[in-house]
Specification:
alpha/beta; 6-stranded parallel sheet; two-stranded antiparallel sheet; 10 strands; about 15% strand; globular
Length: about 220
């Protein structure tokens, strides 16, 4: 695998811990719409695509209302619940010191990701933070990766790493012709389909070792 010329990251559960607040917000949405709330395991299995791509399948004609309800709860609580994953700060510090262009491609609304990055003091790490609604198509469309690299002078390709935690992140990387690096102890699945990343580590400590193998001091 080539040393990267740029590194893009997924956001939720790749750099920050957010499963609990996402689950709570989704349960509240189900409750408000009179549906049986999901279990935590169901939430983790389902949450992959952006809402504009996934909520019409889930809520049909109520998709717009469901999105409003979800984000009403999420916005009320997300910043005080925001927690970086162990080792994520060190990952970003090392890549930034090395001079590598960094970016974010997320399925969450772009304004929320940028708000969370600013809250953590991480905005300066990233050239572009791209989320749902920022472009014509959302992740895993390759256009989202192209938008995140805009201004870096680097085209999508194997020397761009996309670091995520789920199967849709593998799909996003490969759709754009990039290298997929998964940070998760679980096999990356997109629905019931297993996705094969180019490299997988269990956590950021494992990612640190992988970066050292590619000459990045950490």
């Amino acid at each position: 695998m080539r040393r990267p010329r740029a590194v893009l990251f997924d956001w939720d559960n790749t750099l920050v811990e957010s499963w609990e607040i996402i689950h709570e917000s989704l349960r509240q949405t189900f409750h408000d719409l009179g549906h049986e709330p999901w279990t935590f395991e169901q939430t983790k299995a389902w949450v992959r695509r952006s809402m504009r791509d996934s909520f019409p399948d889930l809520f049909g004609a109520d998709a717009a209302r469901a999105e409003h309800l979800f984000y009403r709860h999420y916005r009320a609580h997300h910043l005080r619940r925001l927690t970086p994953l162990a080792g994520a700060q060190e990952t970003l510090d090392a890549l930034h010191r090395d001079g590598l262009p960094l970016g974010v491609v997320s399925s969450k609304q772009g304004d929320l990701v940028r708000e969370e990055a600013a809250h953590l003091g991480w905005s300066g790490y990233f050239g572009r933070i791209v989320g749902a609604g920022d472009g014509r198509l959302d992740k895993p469309a390759p256009e989202a990766v192209t938008l995140a690299l805009d201004g870096a002078g680097i085209a999508a390709g194997p020397d761009v790493w996309y670091v995520g935690d789920t199967g849709i992140d593998v799909t996003c990387a490969h759709n754009a012709g990039c290298t997929a690096v998964i940070v998760s102890a679980d096999p990356p699945r997109d629905g019931d389909c297993l996705r094969v990343p180019d490299h997988q580590v269990a956590d950021h400590a494992g990612l640190h070792g992988f970066l050292r193998e590619h000459g990045i001091t950490i």
